[in-house]
Amino acid sequence: MKTIDKFFISFMLLLQINFFDLIDTRTSFFASFSSYSQKKLLLVIAFAYMFIRSIAYGINYKREKNYTLFVILFLISWVAILLATVSIYGQSIVKTLFVSYYFLLLILYFPFSEALSSKESWRTLIKIFSDFAFILSLIKIFQSLMISKFDKVFFFMSNNDYNTATSLRFVKFGFTRMPSPTDFVFISLLLTLFSVFIGLKLFTKWRYRLYIGVYIIFIFFIGQTRSYIIMTILVLLLYALWLINKHFGKDLVILTVGILAIPVLFFMIKFIISIIFGNSSRGISLSIRQEAIKYYLQNISLHKWFSLGFVRDDLFSNLVHNTHVDFAGNVYSYNYDDVGIVGLIAQYGWLGILNISIYFLTTLSIFIRSHSKYLLLFIFVLLFGSWTSVSLFDPQRIFYLPILLVLIDSISNNILKSDFYGGSTDV
Length: 427
Known about the structure:
This protein is mainly α and about 425 residues long. It is about 65% helix and about 0% strand.
C-alpha cells in the first residue's frame, strides 16, 4: 500500500472510531461534524484523499471494477432525489445536502479499487483494522466493567453509549452495554478471519487467538447487538468448517454439516428468542421495528418514483419518524437506521429498489463466476446479513461498504485466492 493511501485510510478509520473515543464529542461543536452518525469531516477527508491521490498516482481506468454501474447509478439517483426533494419540499439545497451527504462516501469505491489492488495492500489494511479494533475492544471492555462495577467513567463515548451504559439496563456477566463500536469490531473480526483463509499470516498463532477472543468477548458481552451476535456465530461456523476441511477433507465437512444442522439451527433460534424476549425493552424494540418497516414500505410510492426523499428531520419529523403507541400508552418513533435496507428504500423508494437489484445481481453474477465461492460466502454474511437492521447504507457504516465491494472485486479478480483446500496458516 502506498504512503498516501496508508495515511488517509488510517486517518479515516480513526475518524470512524473517534480516535478510540479519546476525544469528547458529546457536547462539543465537533460533534456536528464527526461522531458515530455524523460523517461531514470524513467526507471532506475522503474528497481530499481522492484529489491528492489522483494527482500523485493518476487513475487506472483499465482496472476491472465490477460495481462501477451500481456506484454510478446510485450517485445519479442521489442527485435526482436531492433535486426532487428541494423542489417538492421547498428545502434549500444546502440543508438537503446536510441530510444526505453521507451517501457520497460510496464514491470511495474508485480510489479504494486502486489502493487495494494487491495482496500486500490488503495485508496492510487488515492489519490496521485488526490492531485498531483490538485497542478499541480493550478500552471498551475495561470501561464497561468500571461502569457496571464501580460506576466510574474513564473514557469518552457517544451519547447513546453513555446513556445505555450508565443506565445499567443491559448488564450481561458483569458487562454493561456499549453498542456503537460493534460495527468496527465485527468487521475487524471478519477481516482477521479472512486473512487466515487466504494465508496472509499477519500475526503469530497466539496473537491471532488473542485478537479473535477479545473481539468475540466485546461483540457478545459489551456490544450486545443482536444482528452482530448472529453474524458472529455464522462466521465462526464457516471458519470451523474451513478448519475441518483443511485437516480432514471435504467428506467430513459434509458429514459435520449434516450432523450439526438441526441442533445448531435449534440453538440459534433459541438464542435469538432469548435475546429478543429475554428483556422486555428488547422485545418492544423488535415490535417497533416491525411497525416501522410496515410504515416505510407503505410510503414507497409517496412521490411515485421515490419515497420520502431527503426531508429535513427538524421540519418534517412526523413524516420521517411517525409514531408508534404500544398497549401501555408509550409513544415510540421510527428511524431509518433501525430497519436495515428498508431505511434506504424509505428514502429512495422505487429508485432504491432498482439500485438494490443491480447491487444484488452484480454480486450474484460475481459469485457464479468465481472460483473462490467459500471466500465470498464468508463476506456475504455481512453484506447481506446487514440488510435486516444494521444496513451498510446507514451513515454509521457506509464507509465500510466500498471497502467490502473492493474486497469482492479482489476475490473475483483472483488477487485474493481461497485457501479452502489447504495451506499452512492455522489459528
